[in-house]
Amino acid sequence: MAIQKPSHTFTKIHLKALHTNNFYILFALSFTVFINTFGFAQDIPKPGKNISSEKTKDTINVEINSLEKIEVSTIEQDSTLNDSIKPKPELLASTVTYKAKDYTSFNSKEQKLYLYNEAEVYFQDMELKAGIIVIDYSKNEVYAGRIKDSAGVYTQRPSFKQGDNLVEPDSIRFNFKTEKALIFKSKTEQQGMQIYAPITKKENDSVIFLYKGRFTTSKDIENPEYYFQANKIKLVPGKKIVVGLTNMVIADVPTPIGLPFGFFPLTKKQTSGVLIPSFGEQSSRGYFLQNGGYYFAISDYIDLAVLGDYYTNGSYGLRFESDYALRYKFYGDIGFRYENLIESERGFPDYSKQNIYNIRWTHSQDTKSSPSSRFTASVNLGSSKYYKESINQVNAPSQLNNTMQSSVSYSKTFQGQPQVNMSVAATHSQNTNTESINMTLPTLQASVSRIYPFEPKTGSKKGILQNINFQYNVRAENRIQTTDSLFFKKEMWDQAQNGINQSIPLTTNFKILKHLSLSATTNYNETWTFKTVDKYYDESINDVVTEENNGFASYRTYDFNANLGTTLYGMFNFEKEGEDKKIKALRHVMRPSISYSINPSFDQYYDTYEVVSADGLTKEQVEYSKFEKSVFGSPNNRHSNMVGFALGNNIEMKVRDKDSTATEPRKIKLLDNLNINTGYDIAADSLNWNNVTISGSTQLLKGKMSVNFGAVLNPYALDNNNNMIDRWNIDNGGSLFRLTSANVTMNYSISNTTFTGGETEESYAENIRSGGRADDLFGRSQDFANQSFYEEDDDEEENTPSDLYTSVIPWSIRFAYAVNYANARREDDISSHSLMFSGDVELSPRWKVGASSGYDFKNKGFTYTSLRFERDLLSWRMSLNWIPFGNNSQWNFFIGIKSNLLKDIKYDKRRQQDKQL
Which of 20, 429, 648, 783 is 20 to 30 A from 858 (CA-CA)? Predict the structure, then answer.
């Protein structure tokens, strides 16, 4: 074994003479001495020679009588209270509370306190938790860091909290006195923004500087999907983030997306700001920007969003959306939409220009705010062509709506005996196909609660007399029937009809033979109108002339009706004592009733005019009423003496419950209701029997499927011209009844939670506000930038596989089936027959596809079809909505950040429908 030389073990040190320059050394020393002698940095120079002030004596002497001298009492004070030696300031302004799991050790020589393992320190509004903490009392500083566990892994990262700000670094150095801190590898969260920096310098409570930091809205700050990298960041907690040169990094790959500087507001309150538009191209209108504008955070109770669309051919659109709320009082939203649409170019034959608009308003009042009064509003009115012609993608699913309805009402209750109820309402109904509009501006209703003149002072009411009651009702209405072209023009008001109707119903009810209930009512009605008509035949023009007369007129009517009914219960048991059959019993509830009504003829309110027949020889008498154009119509001119028959049915079944622990059998509804109605008119000279009407509904598949059906049966036959004749259909070679119409509607919803007991609910507020369905069978709104339509569920429940499915794949599907049959005049035709469906499937935890479509069996074609593709990219969201065919074919692609803080960072591309094609 060889022995190493010492030279192989120790490093050799060679000395080499250094080159010096004596002149420069002496010059530097002289300059240093000069600066130290006459220079002042932050020190204040010593004061120079003091200039003494000259004292002069006052030449005027004032003598005071010794008797007039006032004795001044003096109180001797302790001289130690004004000690010339000032005490040193306290080391800490507040008490420091600390603890540790393993040990706490104080080094009196170093004036340091050591805390180890789960150490905690509390000082004023500051909390510090870490694996190890060292408090240096001599420097007023605290040092905190991590410790290693048995495997050599660093654990117990420091957690520093001051007020609402929380920082979790690798280590921290903090000064109690100046409240400055130096933080290494810090992680903090500010209003949804995750911020990380290798070195952080805390100046005070309001300013923090970060070096080479990054910020993101990703929940995983360790491995974010994206982040913004900046060398210099200034953070003012709760207010703003100001950055220098910033670069966007996606999946740790730098992108060319960058900004020379950036400003990101941080606030818990709503703030005003710009709404970034989306862009696209349409062949008939050119390039466009949509849904861009400005959001005004007016106050905590109301806001306003002003949005606009612009197309390079000159078309444009405006949207004003506002939400308001006052807690425990009311809440609502209001919106106005306007579009100026231009087709083609000026001078071309296909050039057109139209203006369309839409007004929406919903208002709801908290019931507790005013129990005796209530104000509600649900308004949706505008151009009949608005939803069909609108080019804003938000309105795409509403293009199938064919009605718009509005209602604004105020009701007030005046307590007392009797109680008075009053309401004022304005209503609006608009058919977008026929462009007809029916409005009531306004309708006033008032009623006095029931008065029982023979009511006993104590005890319940019994017999005919004690149950006699009456009330007073009044209804005043101003009705307008107009068209879309005359809406809110002078001609619309000229067509207004108004009137007042007053009614006094007198009612009583009592029992007959303990099981029969009899109710009888007689009504007195008086109608006032302010417009009547006169008719006469003008032979010069061979036509009937109608003249309108403005003035007060009235008519009075009365009627009587009675109803006798009871309830019958039937139970059929399938099992005997000692048996345990699956079907135990069948329960049938019947509610038969017989009604009788008399409606007299009021011929005194009718006049006649003569019309020359087609042969020009004979004259025909035509009867008319001058009240036929009044709001409440004409009085009855046909005597009616009707007996009605009605039967209501409800059928339930009791079966053995699958749960062996259940003590009672389970009830299954076979028929929720099955109603049969008909009537016989004693006063009619022919066709005395009314149609037999059948209607019913039931719930199937544990309430998942609702079924409604109806049919109308006519007992009379038709002649060769398909007109009804006074002859039984069975005597004409047909069946007992002739089916004139029938309808069936079914709605069915099913999902993966159907078999696991869970339930899913979705909100389609935009469809409802536009007058559409409360589901997505007509598609969903395509406002991808609106977060409210794609709410995230952060608290995801753990789904367990069911017996039918071995893996959990969330899905849901909804069906709506409808068929209508018409045969009133031997049409024997299916007037409509369609099936609509909509569904969503999560192919993976973050991939979701959906579709809304339907099939028209009568016209043999697919209805409005919409396909949806959604991808959850953690911090981002990607969506594609595609309408593949039809007049509204289009597609919209969107990708953007979910967080509202950075929601304007997005890419939105779309291709809209081309009306020319």
Answer: 429
Query: What does the mean pLDDT of the chain come to?
Result: 81
My answer on whether 301 and 237 are in the same domain is no
Q: Distance between CA 534 and CA 532 in Å, rounded?
A: 7
**527 within 8 A of 501, measured Cβ to Cβ:** yes
**Residue 510 counted as domain residue:** no
Question: At which of 370, 401, 432 does a domain end?
Answer: 401
> In 191-271, at which residue ranges do the beta strands (DSSP E only) sit?
193-202, 208-216, 226-236, 240-243, 246-250, 253-259, 262-265
Total of domains in the chain: 4
What one-letter code names the amino acid at 8? H
pLDDT of 914: 60
In the prediction, which pLDDT does 181 show?
Answer: 86
Domain closes at, from 348, 383, 401: 401
- 554 and 544 Cβ atoms separated by less than 8 Å: no
Q: Do residues 875 and 887 both lie within one domain?
A: yes
pTM for this entry: 0.68
The pair of three-digit structure tokens given for residue 850, joined into one six-digit string: 């959906």
The Cα 288–Cα 295 span in angstroms is 21
Asked whether residue 777 is domain-assigned, the answer is yes
Please state the length of the chain.
917
Judge contact between 261 and 241, C-beta under 8 A.
no
Q: How far apart are CA 139 and CA 572, in angstroms?
A: 93
Q: What Å distances lie between residue 441 and 382, 480, 527, 551, CA to CA?
A: 16, 8, 18, 20
Long-range Cβ contacts of 302-306 (<8 Å, 24+ apart): 303/270, 305/275
Look at strands 724-728 and 692-700 and give their pairing. unpaired
C-alpha distances (whole Å) from 542 to each of 489, 614, 619 are 33, 10, 13
- Rg (C-alpha) for the chain, rounded Å, is 44
Q: Which among 269, 267, 260 has a CA at the least distance from the CA of 240?
A: 267
Instruction: Report mean pLDDT in 10-residue bins for the chain, 917 residues.
Output: 41 41 50 45 47 54 47 48 54 71 87 90 84 89 88 86 81 84 84 85 82 86 86 84 87 85 76 82 81 89 92 90 92 92 82 89 89 91 85 68 88 90 93 88 92 86 88 93 84 86 94 90 94 87 86 93 94 80 88 94 90 73 88 90 94 82 79 93 90 92 87 93 90 90 92 56 54 60 46 46 60 91 90 91 86 90 88 88 82 85 79 61
pLDDT of 2 reads 41
The pLDDT of residue 779 is: 60
Structure-token match 């003829």, residue found: 601
Which residues neighbour 799 within 8 Å (Cβ) at sequence distance 6 or greater? Answer: 752, 753, 756, 758, 808, 810
Alpha helices in 599-725 (DSSP H): none
CB of 749 closer than 8 Å to CB of 738? no
pLDDT per position as a tens digit, 320-360: 999 999 988 999 999 999 999 888 777 788 788 889 999 99
For residue 320, what are the domain limits?
269-401
What's at 340, amino acid-wise? N
Rounded CA gap, 21 and 641, in Å? 136
Give the Cα separation of 40 and 83 in Å (integer). 33
DSSP-derived 3-state class of residue 900: helix
Q: How far is the C-alpha of 390 from the C-alpha of 358, rounded, in Å?
A: 10
Q: Tens of pLDDT along 221-232?
A: 888 888 888 888
In sequence order, which residues have a C-beta less than 8 Å from that of residue 813 and are 6 or more positions away? 749, 750, 751, 837, 838, 839, 840
* Residues 6+ away with beta carbon under 8 Å from 240: 263, 264, 265, 266
